Amino acid sequence: MLLPRQKTPDLSLSTLDHGDFDLASEVSDRGTVICFYRGLHCPICANYLTELQKRVADFAERGIKTIAISSDGEERTRAMADKIGADSLRFAYDLPLAKAKEWGLYISTSRGKTSIGIEEPALFSEPGLFMVTPEQTLYYGSVQTMPFVRPHFSELLGAVDFAIKNDYPARGEYTGEV
Predict the structure, then answer these.
(1) 137 beta partners
(2) CA distances to 22, 129, 138, 177 from 10, in Å
(3) Domain boundaries 13-18+29-148, corresponding CATH code
(4) What does the pLDDT look like over 144-165, one tens digit per residue?
């Protein structure tokens, strides 16, 4: 389990149009929002990533970079980026499922074609949304077992504004006895 204020797993992947992504060497004032998505087969992911694409500049104004990541290969990732009209959201691909598990993501098996007629991969990770500080520690994390009911980016931006204004620390860090 990832813990707030503790170092996250390393994460190095190729991106579609922005060279290699390496979380350990990511440079930003306030961190990086990492949006793990299921893949091209997921229509809910396309809607969710469309919303993130609309908010990339809002996050950037606050010193936060953004990236969308899945275990899809380059071709399917390009198809997703094209589908949502991505022009500023970075997309990384070929997330190893062992790495997805390190991040606490759930893994699902294929059920065949989805409602939009695209075949699910044999195995793929379920969604997760994380905000990682410039020091590569966990600030915020949310994982799902299903594609439904994801955090809203507008609410995350509001939380970021509150955290900046009030120097609010990451919460959930306690590991002692209860």
Answers:
(1) 7
(2) 8, 16, 12, 28
(3) 3.40.30.10
(4) 999 999 999 999 999 999 999 9
